[in-house]
Design goal:
It is built from 3 helices and no strands. The protein is an all-alpha fold. The termini are far apart.
Length: 81
């Protein structure tokens, strides 16, 4: 069987174009399980327990998760270009 290889690229557009025209089941022999995160877009922030409790309380009052509250605070203070 003559087939195209899976592109070895970090380009999301190139990969999307490839998978738009190919079937994953044709490449089962090339697939491998990935246990580590592929995209890491998180940051760990060290807080004192009392600081975390305050954040949890404020988030609960707003009906959102503590992570979403912290994200809102960060976005209020940065300018994305």
């Amino acid at each position: 069987m003559n087939r195209t290889n899976i592109p070895q690229t970090d380009s999301i557009q190139e990969l999307a174009d490839f998978w738009d025209t190919h079937d994953l089941t044709d490449f089962e022999d090339e697939l491998e399980e990935v246990t580590a995160p592929v995209f890491d877009n998180s940051v760990s922030v060290q807080l004192k327990s009392e600081e975390l409790e305050i954040i949890k309380t404020l988030a609960k009052l707003r009906g959102i998760s503590p992570a979403n509250l912290i994200r809102e605070w960060v976005l209020e203070h940065i300018e994305v270009k």
